[in-house]
Specification:
α6 packs across α7. An eight-stranded parallel β-barrel has the order 1-2-3-4-5-6-7-8, surrounded by seven helices. The chain contains ten helices and eight strands. The longest helix is centred in the first third of the chain and has 21 residues. It has one domain: Alpha-Beta Barrel (TIM Barrel). β5, α7 and β6 form a beta-alpha-beta unit. By secondary structure, it is α/β, with parallel strands linked by helices.
Length: 235
């Protein structure tokens, strides 16, 4: 009987943990060679594991929306991706079109060159333009590309995103080398305070790493290795 109780308790605990971890995850596929079969697989995996969202390139937003509109899973897409060096007007257009197609979360890449040029007013104004373009219909996550920034630049980028009323700051695109680490998550959390979202993205490939990010202050995990993270619960 005691053995049965222990097995039942362990099973129920794993179910709770699986549900909790899944709700942190933006299940991500942003590779340029992704085709419809790849995107459909990501959608089905998101449904199976009940991830918070799928994060895909803008072209696939309407496709994913149609597949997910009767579920609680959100559709997230990227703007100015992956370099951040497109015109603000282009980013605004991308944002508005993505929302019309069904996106409820926008992951915006900042103009990294302008941040490094100390043109903080431009960076803030561009983020504000994207927030305004959502008209309250989507969350804005600001990708600051931590691997390219100094500590001071990371702090400035996070503060600018907060001042511009963005909803999240996010570590990385995954296309610039490096990725999320706990030191950056702690720094970002300390900068934006307790109420703003912090998304760890880039290199989060295991349950242990995901837990470390959450413990450091992340409230969302962007991962293409979401299934490996969930399989870690079985192990």
């Amino acid at each position: 009987m005691k053995h049965l109780y222990r097995c039942t308790y362990k099973y129920e605990r794993n179910i709770r943990m699986k549900t909790t971890i899944a709700k942190y995850i933006d299940h991500t596929l942003l590779k340029p060679e992704s085709n419809q079969n790849d995107i459909n697989r990501v959608v089905q995996e998101a449904i199976e594991h009940n991830f918070f969202s799928v994060c895909i390139n803008p072209y696939w937003v309407s496709f994913c929306y149609e597949k997910l509109k009767d579920t609680e899973i959100q559709v997230c897409t990227v703007v100015g991706f992956p370099l951040g060096a497109t015109l603000t007007e282009t980013k605004v257009f991308e944002t508005k079109k993505a929302i019309l197609d069904g996106a409820t979360e926008i992951d915006l890449v900042i103009n990294i060159g302008e941040l490094k040029s100390n043109n903080d007013q431009f960076v803030k104004k561009e983020i504000e333009s994207i927030v305004e373009a959502t008209a309250g219909n989507a969350l804005v996550k600001v990708i600051i590309e931590t691997s390219l920034l100094t500590k001071n630049e990371k702090i400035r980028a996070c503060q600018l995103a907060k001042d511009a009323n963005a909803h999240f700051v996010k570590t990385s695109t995954g296309f610039a080398g490096g990725g999320a680490n706990t030191e950056d998550i702690i720094l970002m959390r300390d900068t934006v305070g307790p109420t703003m979202g912090v998304k760890a993205s880039g290199g989060v490939r295991s349950l242990k790493t995901a837990k470390n990010m959450i413990d450091a202050g992340a409230t969302r995990i962007g991962a293409s290795a979401s299934i490996d993270i969930m399989n870690g619960l079985r192990e």
